[in-house]
Amino acid sequence: xxxxxxxxxxxxxxxxxxxxxxxxxxxxxxxxxxxxxxxxxxxxxxxxxxxxxxxxxxxxxxxxxxxxxxxxxxxxxxxxxxxxxxxxxxxxxxxxxxxxxxxxxxxxxxxxxxxxxxxxxxxxxxxxxxxxxxxxxxxxxxxxxxxxxxxxxxxxx
Length: 157
Ligand code: THU
What we know:
single chain, alpha+beta, 6-stranded mixed sheet
């Protein structure tokens, strides 16, 4: 029997260990949680995406009374980013979340499966890694790429 293992690298950093671009993006993701519409879960998520044209696009989860119709922060951000700047390449994404107590979560939230697959599309279009920053209250998980969060990903490219 042959087998292989897939390992992913997750760096754990304090906010003071981020470079200035990363810190700015993390702060914008945290700020985007303010624009979440989450009356059903009270779980407010924000995402910010840095593009190669210098623009930063943010998004927040948008819920709906018909629950499945809502959208996560990551997808609201990536779909808007590509709709607004279809030529731009994604470079980095930051995600932050506040729990029902209104506080930023201690342990960073990671994107759901559908968001990972959606983000991967834009990483493939970018032709290079899109760095991922998962932002907790006092710590950040830094991953080198979207695909690292989606081992054995489906891709048609
Ligand atoms: N949510 C996100 O926006 N991103 C994630 O990575 C996980 C979950 C949203 C969906 C829903 O509005 C709320 O958080 C609770 O699941």
